[in-house]
Amino acid sequence: MSDPCIAINGAGIAYREFSCDYPQLGNLYFDFEKKYDPIPVLDWMRENPMIPVAACVLYGVLIMAGQYAMQTREPWNWRQIMAFWNLGLSVFSWIGMARTLPQLLHNLYYMSVRDNLCMDPRVTYGSGSTGLWVQLFILSKFPELIDTFFIVIHKKPLIFLHWYHHITVLLYCWHSYVTTSPPGIFFVVMNYSVHASMYGYYFLMAMKLRPKWFNPMIITIFQISQMVVGVIVTLLGFYYYKTDPTCGIEKENNTAAFVMYGSYLFLFLQFFIGRYFKPKKQKTV
């Protein structure tokens, strides 16, 4: 008798649909999520490797053109549009977190750390309902570039950390996905979780509804914590790459992740200290 929880994706790889193991939780999933096959989009991404590169080049050009165009103009007032843009990203991230975190917890409970970091993600989390939300996470890095548009039109300071983060995340996420990087779900869950709170905070700020008790330092601490875990995961990836020839870790991708998370950790710590702990200059009377 065949197992109803086992399905075959477009690459001919058998996987176990997560929601099938938890019927009560599975009732919250749509059928199209449970049956989702990520392979057609994955194949298309593999056939078009220059798309993220072109997007990043266009992003850089538009930043410079936008800042030049705004030099002699008054700042726009798109506060409400920006607020609902941030609300949309926050809601999307909350849903994404709710769809991917249970799978990660399930995998951590039933699989060893080695298997979580080494096994083919198309088997462990990249197909079916979780696979859909992992794929949506990767593709969401393109619309997230629009964040910078609001900074430019409002003539706010555009710091290096902002645009560097957007470019490197987009390139890394695309590369990780097309090379089926096993540790990806760790990064997906962390990023969804941080963005759920971060964009929600940006929405409240844009609408001038931030509770007085909420300290923005909390958001930065979340971000720094994400970078610390990212560095730890990549270091574990190097360990299994060196000690286990059957591990699916790709050296180049893991090196890129280590450099990316290491640089983010440095930049976010620098931002954190500069914003919250350096004494502010007193205005001259």
TrEMBL record:
<keyword id="KW-0276">Fatty acid metabolism</keyword>
<keyword id="KW-0808">Transferase</keyword>
<protein>
    <recommendedName>
        <fullName>Elongation of fatty acids protein</fullName>
        <ecNumber>2.3.1.-</ecNumber>
    </recommendedName>
</protein>
<dbReference type="Pfam" id="PF01151">
    <property type="entry name" value="ELO"/>
</dbReference>
<dbReference type="GO" id="GO:0005789">
    <property type="term" value="C:endoplasmic reticulum membrane"/>
</dbReference>
<feature type="transmembrane region" description="Helical">
    <location>
        <begin position="82"/>
        <end position="101"/>
    </location>
</feature>
<dbReference type="GO" id="GO:0019367">
    <property type="term" value="P:fatty acid elongation, saturated fatty acid"/>
</dbReference>
<keyword id="KW-0444">Lipid biosynthesis</keyword>
<keyword id="KW-0812">Transmembrane</keyword>
<dbReference type="GO" id="GO:0034626">
    <property type="term" value="P:fatty acid elongation, polyunsaturated fatty acid"/>
</dbReference>
<dbReference type="InterPro" id="IPR002076">
    <property type="entry name" value="ELO_fam"/>
</dbReference>
<keyword id="KW-0275">Fatty acid biosynthesis</keyword>
<feature type="transmembrane region" description="Helical">
    <location>
        <begin position="216"/>
        <end position="241"/>
    </location>
</feature>
<feature type="transmembrane region" description="Helical">
    <location>
        <begin position="50"/>
        <end position="70"/>
    </location>
</feature>
<dbReference type="GO" id="GO:0009922">
    <property type="term" value="F:fatty acid elongase activity"/>
</dbReference>
<dbReference type="GO" id="GO:0030148">
    <property type="term" value="P:sphingolipid biosynthetic process"/>
</dbReference>
<keyword id="KW-0472">Membrane</keyword>
<dbReference type="InterPro" id="IPR030457">
    <property type="entry name" value="ELO_CS"/>
</dbReference>
<keyword id="KW-0443">Lipid metabolism</keyword>
<feature type="transmembrane region" description="Helical">
    <location>
        <begin position="184"/>
        <end position="204"/>
    </location>
</feature>
<keyword id="KW-1133">Transmembrane helix</keyword>
<comment type="similarity">
    <text>Belongs to the ELO family.</text>
</comment>
<feature type="transmembrane region" description="Helical">
    <location>
        <begin position="256"/>
        <end position="277"/>
    </location>
</feature>
<feature type="transmembrane region" description="Helical">
    <location>
        <begin position="160"/>
        <end position="178"/>
    </location>
</feature>
<feature type="transmembrane region" description="Helical">
    <location>
        <begin position="132"/>
        <end position="153"/>
    </location>
</feature>
<dbReference type="GO" id="GO:0034625">
    <property type="term" value="P:fatty acid elongation, monounsaturated fatty acid"/>
</dbReference>
<dbReference type="GO" id="GO:0042761">
    <property type="term" value="P:very long-chain fatty acid biosynthetic process"/>
</dbReference>
